[in-house]
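Example A, followed by Example B.
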Amino acid sequence: MIILLVLLIVLVGALVAADRGTASLARDTLRTKLTSTLAQNGGTVQSVELEGFPFLTQVLGGKYDGMDARIVDVPISGLQLSTLTVRATDISWPLGEVVGQNLSAAVADRVDATAVLPLARIADPLAPRGIKLTPEGSNIRVNAPASFAGFSGVVSGLATPGVTKGELTIKLSQLTVAGVPLPSSAASALSSQLARFVKSPKLPYGLTLSTVRLVGSNLVITAGARQVRLGS
C-alpha cells in the first residue's frame, strides 16, 4: 500500500508538472504571438492569462476555456488608450499548431474587449484652440470660443457619447452662447455636423463597438466579435 501510495503521489506530481509545462508553453506562445499581432497597432502586452484546470486536457483536446490579455498605452485612431483588456472564450487551437507556435490557427468563439480612453488625451490637443472638455456626470461639458457677426463669446454644451449601429456618436444638448440658451434645433444641427468628424476607433480583430460611456474622467469603450482568429 505504501509503495502504491508513493507511486500515486509521483504520478500526480508528474501530471501536475506536465500540466503546468503545457500551460507555460501555450501561455508563452500566446504572449509572443499576441505581442507581435498587437504590435501592428502599438501598445505593450502587460499580461496574458489562460483559464481552466487541468490544462493538459485542454491542450490535448485542442479546446481552451478562455484567455485574458491586458495591453497598455495602445494608439488607436490618433489617440492613445491607457488600457485595452481582451477576453477570448471557447478557443479552438489544435495541439500541433501550439507546438508549431501557429497562433493564426487559434480561433475564439467570442472575443470581448474593454478599452479605457482618458478624457484628458482627447482634450489636450484641443486646448491650444481654447476648447475645454470636462466630465459632468455621464456627459462631457464642452466649452469653445466662438466669433461670428461681430460677436465673441463662449459656446457651451453637453456632449453625450454613445453607439449607434456599431459606430461612435456624440449628441449635443443644452447648448448656450455666452450663457444664453439656444433652441434644441441648434444642438441637433451641430450634432449632425459633428457626426461627420467623429470617427469610431479601429480596435484589433475587427471588434464592433457595443457601448461607450463616461466613467469618472475616462471614456470606457466595450466591443465584441464572434469567430475571431487570434493571430489575425
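Example B, a separate protein, is given below in the same form.
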Amino acid sequence: MPDQPSVAARLDRLPVTRLHRYLIAVVGVATFFDLYDLFLASTVSTVLSKEFGVSSGEIKPLLASAFLGAFVGALTLGRLADRIGRRRAFLLTLGIYSLFTLLGAFSTDVWMLVACRFVAGIGIGAELPLADAYLADLLPAKSRGRATAWAYTIGFCGVPAAGFLAMALAGEAPLGVDGWRWLFVIGALGAAVVWVLRARLPESPRWLAANGRHEEADLVVRRLEAAAPQPLAEPAPATPVEEPWRASALLRPPWRRRTVMLYVFQLLQAFGYYGFGSLVPIVLAAKGYGLVHSLTFSAITFLGYPIGSALSIPIIERVQRKWLIVGSALGMAAFGLGFGFSGSSALIAVLGFCYTATSNVFSNAFHTYQGELFPTSLRATAAGSAYSLSRLATAAMPFVLIPVLEAGGAGAMFTVVAVAMAVLIADIALLGPRTTGRPLEEIAAHR
C-alpha cells in the first residue's frame, strides 16, 4: 500500500501526460468564466451608470459586491477543500456561481443584482485558490509553473471576452432583453458546462494520501502513469512524511513567516491587479471618454491579459518565481503611472495593454507560487485564506481609489497603486522562499 512520499515521488517523475493536459484545460476553461465574471463588474457598472441612471453611490456596492462575496468564499471554501477534497469543492463553487449569476441576469433592480453578485462571488472567490492548490498537487515539479501558466492563459481569455461582449451588447437588446443581462446569462451557462466537464476530474492523489485513502491515491497515480510514455524513470527517493497540520498552524511557527508574507502580498496585489482591471472603464470615463470609446479602450487593454499570460509560459520555469513576481510588479508600477498621467489616446491604449500584459506574467507567477508554499493538509486553506484578503481589498477598492480618482485624477490614483506595489516588492524580496523546480515536499520541509 503506497504511502504519501511514494505518491509524491511518482507524481514528480511523470512528464505532462494526456490526463494532465485534460485537467489543465478543464481548470483553464473554468478559470475563463471566473475571470470573465470578475471583470464584468466594471463594464456593467459603466453601462448602468450611463444608460440606466444608476448613481455613483450605487455603483460602489455593485463593484464591491462580488468581491465581498469572493472574500467569504475564498476564506470558507478554501478551508473546506482541505477537508472534503479539491474535486468536490470545485463542483460546489461552480454550482453556486452558475446559479446566482443566472439569477442576477433577471434582476429587477440594482439591489437585487448586488445581492446576486454577492452570492455568486462566494463561488467565484474559492475558484482561483482551489485551482492553484489542485494544479500544484497534481503537476510534476519540473513542469508545475509552465502547466499552471497554460491553464491561466486559457482562463485569461475570459477578460477580453468580457470586454468585447460588453462593447458589442452595450445599448443593445437582443430578443428584447437588455444586453448587460445577456452578459450574465453567457457566464452562467458556460459555468454550467464546465461543471459537467469537471465531474470527470480525478481527486488530488496527494490529498487522498494525506487523508489515509492510499488505495484511491494509487489508482489516480496509476491513471496518470498509464497515460505517460514508457518507460518511466524510477521514483526519486522518498521525502519525509508531511505532518497533518491544522489550519491554526498557519499563524504559528514554522508557517507564520510564510503566512504573513503571503497575506501582506495578497492585500497589496489587489491594488495593482484588480485596481486596474476593475476600474479602468471608470478611469477612462474620468479622462473624458464616452461610453463607446471607454468600452473600446477597455476591450483593447484587456487583450493584454491572455497575451501576457502566454508570454509567461517560456520564462516561468527559467526565472526564480519570487524574482519574476518582483520584476513584473515593478513593470506594473511603471506602466500604471504612465497610463495615469497620459493624455494621448494612442499612448493610453499602448500603456494599458503593456500594463495588463505585465500584470499577467505577475499573476501566473504568484498563482503558481502560492500553491507551492505549504504542505498538502494546509495548501488550499492557506491559498484560500490569503486570497480572501485580496478579495476583501478589492471590495474596498471602489471606496478607496474612486475618491482618490475624483479628487486628484488618474495620476494620483496610480501613484497610490505604485506605492502599494513598492511595498509588495519588498515583502516578496525579503520574506519569500525559492520554489522553482523543487518538489512540494522539499519546499515544505525547508521552512
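On Example B: The domain at 4-227+246-445 is CATH 1.20.1250.20 (Growth Hormone; Chain: A;).
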